[in-house]
Amino acid sequence: PSTVHSVTNVHRIACIPGDGIGVDITDAAIHVLNTLSATIGGFEFAFTTFDWSSKNYLERGWYMPPDGLEQLKKFDAIYFGAVGWPNVPDHISLWSLILPIRKALNQYVNVRPTRILQGTKSPLSESVCKPSDLDWMIIRENSEGEYSGQGGTSHEDSPYTVATEVSIFTRVGIERIMRFAFETARSRPRKKLTMVTKSNAQRHGMVLWDKVFYEVAKEYEDVEIDKMLVDAMTVRMVLQPKSLDTIVATNLHADILSDLAAALSGSIGIAPSSNLDPTRANPSMFEPIHGSAPDIAGKGIANPVGAFWSAAEMVRWVGEEKAADGLMKAVENVTARGVKTRDLGGSEDTKGVTEAVCREIED
Ligand code: GGG
């Protein structure tokens, strides 16, 4: 008799639940991912959880141990919950955890897809935005710009305090994000890329940003392009959502625009993000875009959909395309049936939505 060998791919995942509802939704995501691998078969996840949080910082004085970044390099991907807690200044928590990880692991692209899921609604009226009108792919530069961390403060605690926050834009940094954005736009049906800038007021970095955009555009003649100032862009997102498809913007601009995008698609609770090292030399990191929401932390009512969508993007990145599609289909079947948390107009809690998604995967 012949022996049948079944091959199981094991994907090593570092989990950093972080703070507040980050813990609630990471638990939910792990449960769903385990259900997914057990149901589909052929792959599994080996999760290692790291308690790198503001609680840790308040008790021990550090978020990550000194070799934390080296530890993360041993994994295939990182799943991140949220960071931020009332007793720790936000710039300390961000600069102790999430920003060093993005920078050290060369995650220079942040991808933020936005669309209206079945059974959910945009706050925009139907005359402006039918469900199919809002389908955007926001590409955020994730390594430099306004988040370069350069600057300083002098004459502190005096009326003459001076603080500088230096935005750094490099040709290499701009070129690589533009190429990623053009490739993304080319891969989508509409082949359309809108570049966001503020080069009328910011006359150095943003002018270089524009210049490199038009240079790279010459390599992508099949992609339709346009340019928007960031202030006008907010208006266009609200009044003409259908006119947009792929969007590329700086670290700060895309951070702000993607929160607006999430709200226009129904709730910030559904929005996913992928921090990618496209070279794949380092693990990429997947996290919902929402923060730690201390006011509802531990109450079991956080919306886990952004966490599931981020998990689906992670599953796709590690090569399990079919499973990723299956997970997103399960999530949308659940929202379509009206099983939703309160932010989406439903009455379910985190556990109710999570169990419903698991049952949908198993069916
Ligand atoms: N899960 C995302 C999170 O914790 N976000 C907190 C935040 O403000 N992040 C800033 C950023 O994404 O740059």
UniProtKB/TrEMBL annotation:
Record keywords: Magnesium, Manganese, Metal-binding, NAD, Oxidoreductase
EC number, as in UniProt: 1.1.1.83
Annotated source species: Clathrospora elynae
GO molecular function: D-malate dehydrogenase (decarboxylating) (NAD+) activity; magnesium ion binding; NAD binding
Stored InterPro entries: ICDH/IPMDH, IsoCit/isopropylmalate_DH_CS, IsoPropMal-DH-like_dom, TTC_DH
Pfam families for the chain: Iso_dh
Catalytic activity of the protein: (R)-malate + NAD(+) = pyruvate + CO2 + NADH
Protein origin, superkingdom: Eukaryota
Isopropylmalate dehydrogenase-like domain sequence ranges: 12-357
Cofactor or coenzyme needed: Mg(2+); Mn(2+)
Protein known as: D-malate dehydrogenase (decarboxylating)
Family listed: Belongs to the isocitrate and isopropylmalate dehydrogenases family.
NCBIfam families xref list: TTC
